[in-house]
Amino acid sequence: MRPVTRPLLSLVVPAFQARSTLGDCLDSLLAVEEGTEILVVDDGSEDDTAVLAEARLASRPGSRVLRTPNRGPGAARNLGLREARGRHVLFVDSDDLVLPEALQGALRLLDRDGTDLLGADYLQTFEGTGRTERVCRGFPLGLNGPEGAERMRRCLLFRHFKPLVWAHIFRRDRLLEEGVFFLEGRFFEDEEWMPRAILAARTLQAFPEPWYLYRRRGGSISAATSLRKVEDKVFVAREMGRRGDGVTPPWKDFFRYAEQRILKSARRDLATLPREAEGREVLEGEIARAWNPGRYWWGKAVQAVRARFI
Fold it and tell me: Fewer CB within 10 A of the terminal residue: the chain, N end or C end?
């Protein structure tokens, strides 16, 4: 790997009350020996998350801890993105791990090709069982240039869309130039962010090995339903619809279907909450006005057809 004047990759870790998991996460990041900096964004933790991070990062020159009042993972990632010095950025959740050898291989590819977006499969392990499995995402491998980039983009949006921010490495300058920042103060901010990051990339590639271990836990930030989370889903759905108004087919179809898919999920979540919950009736009416089952089923069919011809 040729010498660089700045890190090739910034590893941005938003952390809130992460004392129990952050140490293992940072140990895996520190095992990636070349071309990286680590930025832990302490999102107003009241435990000693920041103290632990500073102690772990003391051995890595250039890596640092950023402290901010609690504003949620979207704001924490935005701060890390702005403060990063790397040519590329990978967002890492504080309770997950990276696989150092695979990530080092991805860095060599980035150093050679400088792609705007690099995607990969990932591993997931289930809390309490120890079972680990590889999640295959069906990416086209070995394709470069415009044809490969277009196939990769369609695969990401039409075949298996999931807002897996950590399963992709992004060219930082492209995100900044296109103003691709996360919604702040909202749940499900990654759902709205990920499609914009995919469309902002001019060059896209797939890496053949997973570099990320996602640890599935019952107490994750999105596990429990609340009225606030349903409100945020409706907000994100509206944002997806608004984004669809500003793009051309076939991406318009993706955003319109995404709007209805998220509204459908919001309806399902709302049905699990007590009927006497304050604000539920207003939110129910809001969803009813925006929900369009015909558009949902048409969009689902279009997605399925496009997925078959990637």
Answer: N
